[in-house]
Design brief:
By secondary structure, the protein is of the alpha+beta class. Helices cover 33% and strands 25% of the residues. A hairpin with a 2-residue loop joins strand 7 and strand 8. The protein is globular and about 90 Å long.
Length: 456
């Protein structure tokens, strides 16, 4: 039974070396082996700041398994310091954000039966993965044509005449043929991963779900699959539904020490940078219903290049400019850049970096937009401030660009339908001024489109 410890980003914790792994009075006691496993994981993805006798989680969230520890790293979503009291709410919100950002293969979650206070994140991730995969695989088992080479007594496909040369074996025919089979690399990856997961989870229902998937894939060969082999799987419109599950399999296979022969996981990590998670979450929420948020059915795009900052001596473009969220197509009408950092009300600049302002200045110059926004999570302070950027225009004059500094509260219970709608309303209030004053669109026209069903 592993010891589950919940840490919060940027909080400092003490550790000591000991004969056995345990956690007591806010202090970790690591064996040398467990400390070595953590150091190895930290080298591949620096998620801890390690001092002489202290560790401090950085801006990664997720889970780490090392030795006898399952370490959950949660974000700070509340203003007060009572993080442990908010653990269940934070865990649910983290799962909601992960489901929207595309980092986990599920969107619809029945959180009522997950009991965040009972299961650690590792168990929850696998429970949701297995539950959703079982439903998907029941309705859409993927078969494909597999090329086979075989020596048989009847002709099948085409004869391989290069091998058909021994007169004593003319009754054995070397053939090459294609067989429409379930035993393909994608299904082997799913079966192998489920087999490994079933040996690591402690919840009986999750293990039973994983075994059900393995039974459905009974005709698929159980063999070791590496993350590199899983990476060769190609997706089309027929098997695209399985792509997020394969992505989860690749994470599990690449970050786990478990194999067919080993009996238990020595180390495992599923860690996601919070700035990436925050950006992906906000982007997908806006993409899902732009008419609701902006009052117009505008196009919302993410991570699209708007140009380069410089040219080298050969004329090659350098330093790609990629804003987080672009609104409007083909003309970019507004830009939102998300910043996962806490604003400071005691700072004269509120903790907004000069680099962030320069970045928005360049984006506004390159795209010719007249409105942009820096969006932060609301942790220490609720921020609402407008700045004016004076940027060059095409006629050699300067034009004014509105830069809105805003923060969004993430401490709602996002699994609760009413509070989820409250979050959406707050986000709409924040982003709507980017388009509120545009000509030709008003609340009456928006209401007509929603009534017509085009805003769904």
């Amino acid at each position: 039974m592993k010891t589950v410890v919940t840490l919060f980003e940027y909080q400092q914790y003490r550790f000591e070396l000991a004969e056995r792994d345990h956690f007591h009075n806010d202090t970790f006691y690591f064996t040398e082996k467990t400390m070595g496993l953590l150091e190895d994981l930290n080298r591949s993805k620096p998620f801890l700041e390690c001092g002489l006798r202290t560790i401090r989680p950085l801006n990664y969230v997720g889970i780490v398994r090392a030795g006898d520890f399952t370490i959950e790293i949660f974000p700070k979503l509340f203003r007060d310091e009572k993080y442990q009291e908010h653990r269940k709410n934070i865990a649910a919100n983290l799962l909601k954000m992960l489901s929207y950002s595309g980092d986990l293969p599920f969107r619809e979650m029945d959180m009522a039966d997950l009991h965040q206070d009972k299961y650690d994140l590792f168990e929850i991730f696998i429970r949701l993965f297995s539950k959703n995969l079982l439903s998907t695989i029941k309705s859409s088992q993927k078969k494909e044509y597999i090329k086979k080479s075989e020596e048989i007594r009847v002709i099948k496909g085409r004869i391989d005449f290069k091998k058909y040369v021994n007169p004593c074996r003319f009754h054995i025919i070397p053939c090459e043929y294609y067989e429409f089979s379930i035993d393909n690399i994608m299904n082997r990856t799913l079966k192998y991963t489920c087999h490994l997961m079933a040996r690591t989870v402690e919840d009986f229902d999750t293990a039973r779900t994983l075994r059900s998937i393995i039974n459905i894939l009974d005709q698929v060969t159980l063999t070791r699959i590496t993350a590199a082999e899983a990476d060769t799987i190609t997706f089309d419109r027929l098997n695209r539904v399985f792509e997020p599950y394969i992505e989860m399999c690749k994470i599990f296979l690449s970050q786990s020490t478990l194999t067919l022969q080993s009996s238990e996981i020595e180390s495992f990590s599923l860690l996601i940078p919070m700035e990436k998670l925050f950006e992906g979450f906000i982007t997908q929420v806006l993409k899902e219903d732009p008419l609701y948020f902006f009052g117009r059915p505008v196009v919302v795009r993410s991570q699209m290049s708007v140009g380069r900052m410089a040219l080298d001596e050969n004329g090659k473009e350098l330093f790609n400019l990629i804003p987080d969220i672009l609104i409007g197509s083909p003309v970019i009408e507004a830009i939102i850049d998300t910043k996962y950092k806490a604003l400071d009300s005691m700072d004269t600049k509120l903790g907004i970096s000069q680099a962030d302002i320069y970045q928005m200045y360049v984006y506004a110059t390159k795209t010719n937009t007249d409105r942009c926004m820096l969006l932060y999570p609301e942790v220490m302070v609720n921020q609402k401030k407008d700045l004016t950027l004076s940027v060059p225009s095409s006629d050699d004059s300067n034009r004014d660009v509105l830069l809105m500094i805003r923060s969004i509260r993430l401490a709602y219970n996002m699994i609760n339908k009413e509070e989820w709608e409250e979050f959406r309303k707050e986000l709409r209030t924040i982003v709507r001024p980017l388009f509120r004053e545009r000509e030709g669109w008003d609340d009456v026209k928006t209401s007509m489109i929603l009534a017509d069903g085009r805003g769904d």
